[in-house]
Amino acid sequence: MTSFTDSQGNVFSLKITVGAVDRIVGAGLPDLLCGDPVQIGRFYDSPLVAAKAVCVLIKDQLDALGVKGNPLDHFDGQTLAAALDAFYQEVVLFFQAAQRNDQATLCVEMKRLKAGQAEAQTQGVKQLSEKILSELPGNLESILAASPSVSS
Questions:
Q1: For 25-50, how does the pLDDT look when each residue is reduced to its tens digit (9 = 90+)?
Q2: Closest CA to 51 of 14, 84, 91, 8
Q3: Residue 14, strand partner residues
Q4: DSSP string covering 66-135, please?
Q5: Where residue 149 falls among pLDDT bands split at 50, 70, 90?
Q6: Would you call 121 exposed, middle or buried from its count of C-beta atoms within 10 A (0-12, 13-18, 19+)?
Q7: Who's near 88: CB < 8 A, 6+ residues apart?
Q8: Which of 4, 30, 49, 102 has CA atoms 20 to 30 A from the CA of 73?
Q9: Where on the phi/psi map is residue 69: left (φ > 0), alpha (ψ -120 to 50), or beta?
Protein backbone atom coordinates (compact mmCIF):
# COMPACT_ATOMS: atom_id res chain seq x y z
CA MET A 1 0.00 0.00 0.00
CA THR A 2 1.23 3.45 -0.89
CA SER A 3 0.04 6.84 0.23
CA PHE A 4 0.24 10.46 -0.76
CA THR A 5 -0.50 13.76 0.92
CA ASP A 6 -2.52 16.45 -0.79
CA SER A 7 -1.76 20.16 -0.59
CA GLN A 8 -4.14 20.52 2.39
CA GLY A 9 -2.26 17.90 4.41
CA ASN A 10 -4.78 15.06 3.96
CA VAL A 11 -3.15 11.64 3.64
CA PHE A 12 -4.68 9.19 1.18
CA SER A 13 -3.86 5.48 0.99
CA LEU A 14 -3.81 3.60 -2.29
CA LYS A 15 -4.19 -0.14 -2.58
CA ILE A 16 -4.64 -1.83 -5.93
CA THR A 17 -6.59 -5.06 -5.75
CA VAL A 18 -8.48 -7.01 -8.39
CA GLY A 19 -11.65 -5.38 -7.07
CA ALA A 20 -10.05 -1.96 -7.41
CA VAL A 21 -9.11 -2.72 -11.01
CA ASP A 22 -12.70 -3.81 -11.61
CA ARG A 23 -13.92 -0.43 -10.29
CA ILE A 24 -11.37 1.36 -12.47
CA VAL A 25 -12.59 -0.53 -15.56
CA GLY A 26 -16.19 0.13 -14.50
CA ALA A 27 -15.39 3.85 -14.56
CA GLY A 28 -14.49 3.51 -18.25
CA LEU A 29 -10.73 3.48 -17.72
CA PRO A 30 -8.20 0.99 -19.15
CA ASP A 31 -7.81 -2.49 -17.66
CA LEU A 32 -4.51 -2.71 -15.78
CA LEU A 33 -4.67 -6.49 -15.64
CA CYS A 34 -5.03 -7.17 -19.36
CA GLY A 35 -1.26 -7.34 -19.82
CA ASP A 36 -1.45 -5.15 -22.90
CA PRO A 37 1.36 -2.56 -22.85
CA VAL A 38 -0.86 -0.14 -24.79
CA GLN A 39 -3.58 -0.29 -22.13
CA ILE A 40 -1.12 0.08 -19.26
CA GLY A 41 0.69 2.80 -21.20
CA ARG A 42 -2.45 4.93 -21.24
CA PHE A 43 -1.97 5.52 -17.51
CA TYR A 44 1.55 6.78 -18.19
CA ASP A 45 0.63 8.76 -21.33
CA SER A 46 -2.19 10.68 -19.69
CA PRO A 47 -1.93 12.06 -16.18
CA LEU A 48 -5.70 12.65 -16.41
CA VAL A 49 -6.38 8.93 -16.92
CA ALA A 50 -4.12 8.06 -13.98
CA ALA A 51 -5.70 10.79 -11.81
CA LYS A 52 -9.17 9.41 -12.57
CA ALA A 53 -7.96 5.95 -11.51
CA VAL A 54 -6.61 7.43 -8.27
CA CYS A 55 -9.99 9.04 -7.64
CA VAL A 56 -11.67 5.65 -8.05
CA LEU A 57 -9.21 4.16 -5.56
CA ILE A 58 -9.68 6.89 -2.94
CA LYS A 59 -13.40 7.53 -3.43
CA ASP A 60 -14.33 6.40 0.10
CA GLN A 61 -11.59 8.57 1.58
CA LEU A 62 -12.76 11.60 -0.43
CA ASP A 63 -16.35 10.94 0.67
CA ALA A 64 -15.22 10.78 4.31
CA LEU A 65 -13.62 14.22 3.89
CA GLY A 66 -16.84 15.56 2.45
CA VAL A 67 -15.38 16.29 -0.98
CA LYS A 68 -18.33 17.07 -3.26
CA GLY A 69 -18.59 17.34 -7.01
CA ASN A 70 -15.80 16.28 -9.33
CA PRO A 71 -13.02 14.78 -7.19
CA LEU A 72 -10.46 16.00 -9.73
CA ASP A 73 -11.25 19.55 -8.59
CA HIS A 74 -9.50 18.56 -5.34
CA PHE A 75 -6.25 17.92 -7.25
CA ASP A 76 -3.96 20.90 -7.66
CA GLY A 77 -0.52 20.47 -9.24
CA GLN A 78 1.19 19.41 -6.00
CA THR A 79 -1.54 16.88 -5.21
CA LEU A 80 -1.51 15.51 -8.76
CA ALA A 81 2.25 14.93 -8.67
CA ALA A 82 2.07 13.18 -5.29
CA ALA A 83 -0.95 11.08 -6.32
CA LEU A 84 0.63 9.96 -9.59
CA ASP A 85 3.90 8.96 -7.89
CA ALA A 86 1.95 6.89 -5.35
CA PHE A 87 -0.25 5.35 -8.06
CA TYR A 88 2.69 4.30 -10.24
CA GLN A 89 4.46 2.81 -7.20
CA GLU A 90 1.31 0.92 -6.25
CA VAL A 91 0.90 -0.48 -9.76
CA VAL A 92 4.45 -1.87 -9.63
CA LEU A 93 3.88 -3.31 -6.14
CA PHE A 94 0.65 -4.95 -7.31
CA PHE A 95 2.35 -6.66 -10.25
CA GLN A 96 5.28 -7.76 -8.12
CA ALA A 97 2.92 -9.28 -5.54
CA ALA A 98 1.03 -11.03 -8.34
CA GLN A 99 4.36 -12.46 -9.54
CA ARG A 100 4.03 -10.56 -12.79
CA ASN A 101 7.54 -9.15 -12.82
CA ASP A 102 7.29 -8.65 -16.58
CA GLN A 103 4.43 -6.21 -16.05
CA ALA A 104 6.16 -4.57 -13.07
CA THR A 105 9.28 -4.05 -15.20
CA LEU A 106 7.15 -2.70 -18.04
CA CYS A 107 5.63 -0.12 -15.67
CA VAL A 108 9.02 0.94 -14.32
CA GLU A 109 10.37 1.31 -17.85
CA MET A 110 7.32 3.29 -18.99
CA LYS A 111 7.77 5.73 -16.13
CA ARG A 112 11.49 6.03 -16.92
CA LEU A 113 10.73 6.56 -20.62
CA LYS A 114 8.17 9.27 -19.87
CA ALA A 115 10.64 11.02 -17.56
CA GLY A 116 13.26 10.86 -20.33
CA GLN A 117 10.82 12.27 -22.86
CA ALA A 118 9.90 15.11 -20.54
CA GLU A 119 13.58 15.90 -19.98
CA ALA A 120 14.25 15.87 -23.74
CA GLN A 121 11.32 18.22 -24.33
CA THR A 122 12.53 20.54 -21.58
CA GLN A 123 16.02 20.62 -23.07
CA GLY A 124 14.60 21.25 -26.54
CA VAL A 125 12.53 24.19 -25.30
CA LYS A 126 15.52 25.55 -23.38
CA GLN A 127 17.76 25.36 -26.46
CA LEU A 128 15.11 27.01 -28.63
CA SER A 129 14.60 29.78 -26.07
CA GLU A 130 18.35 30.41 -25.87
CA LYS A 131 18.56 30.57 -29.67
CA ILE A 132 15.66 33.02 -29.92
CA LEU A 133 17.05 35.19 -27.13
CA SER A 134 20.52 35.23 -28.69
CA GLU A 135 19.09 36.34 -32.05
CA LEU A 136 16.60 38.80 -30.60
CA PRO A 137 18.88 41.85 -30.23
CA GLY A 138 19.90 41.78 -33.93
CA ASN A 139 16.38 41.05 -35.10
CA LEU A 140 14.92 43.72 -32.86
CA GLU A 141 17.32 46.34 -34.22
CA SER A 142 16.46 45.48 -37.84
CA ILE A 143 12.73 45.51 -37.04
CA LEU A 144 13.02 48.89 -35.38
CA ALA A 145 15.13 50.27 -38.26
CA ALA A 146 12.51 49.13 -40.79
CA SER A 147 9.60 50.60 -38.83
CA PRO A 148 8.28 53.95 -40.00
CA SER A 149 9.15 56.65 -37.55
CA VAL A 150 6.38 58.50 -35.87
CA SER A 151 6.63 62.24 -36.16
CA SER A 152 4.63 64.80 -34.28
A1: 888 888 877 767 767 778 878 889 99
A2: 84
A3: 2
A4: T--S-GGGG--HHHHHHHHHHHHHHHHHHHHHTT-HHHHHHHHHHHHHHHHHHHHHHHHHHHHHHHHHHH
A5: low
A6: exposed
A7: 43, 44, 50, 107, 111
A8: 30
A9: left
* Secondary structure letter of residue 14 according to DSSP: E
Q: Are 3 and 57 in contact (CB under 8 A)?
A: no
User: What number of other Cβ atoms are within 10 A of residue 24's Cβ?
Assistant: 23
Asked if 24 and 56 count as a contact pair (C-beta separation under 8 A), the reply is yes
Could you report the per-residue pLDDT of 107-125, keeping only the tens digit for each?
Answer: 777 777 766 666 666 777 7
State the average pLDDT over residues 81-102.
Answer: 88
pTM of the model: 0.70
